[in-house]
Amino acid sequence: MATLLFSSALLEPNQNQIAGFKLEKAKILLEPLEHYHSPEQYELVVCSHVLYHVPLSEWGAFIDRLLSFVRPGGTCVIVMAAARGPTYELCRDFSETMLFGEQLLTTMQHKRLPHEVLPTMSGFVARTFEEVYTLCRFFVLEGCFTAEQLAALSEDEVRALDARIRVHAERCRGDDGVYRLEQDEELLLLPR
Description:
7 helices; two-stranded parallel sheet; alpha/beta; 6 strands
């Protein structure tokens, strides 16, 4: 998308996520949104699967900050996993205190921000069990536990957790031998 736009700034606080990533017309910055300062405003601001890493109590201020970078007539797009579908069911088997699109919709209503919700779907395909297991493990560990909770697990608890994740990964195998996992998502459009 950045190659189609006149001016782009891409923010990513994790060096490993952007190692080797280059776009001709984009500034790629190794910093979180909270530290980003720019006099520029953009036609389109996209925040995809970031709010999981922001405390829920700070979502309102985070969204206000996103909107501050949208020029009048522009749009902010926020994408989050929805509280429905196979990935949601996977995660609900491990935790009931996860952040999904429903909390984002509640935040929008409390802030009385005009928005449109577009339900979308992402699909993940893996050829091997290990690939889909790694994907399922990522969703569970990243979405269902804090770093502190994971560090506190005993070796037996880690083995039991991995066994449960493996059961879920096995369920992703289709009749054709290919592993698939779908993720329902909420794509919110916030006009400025």
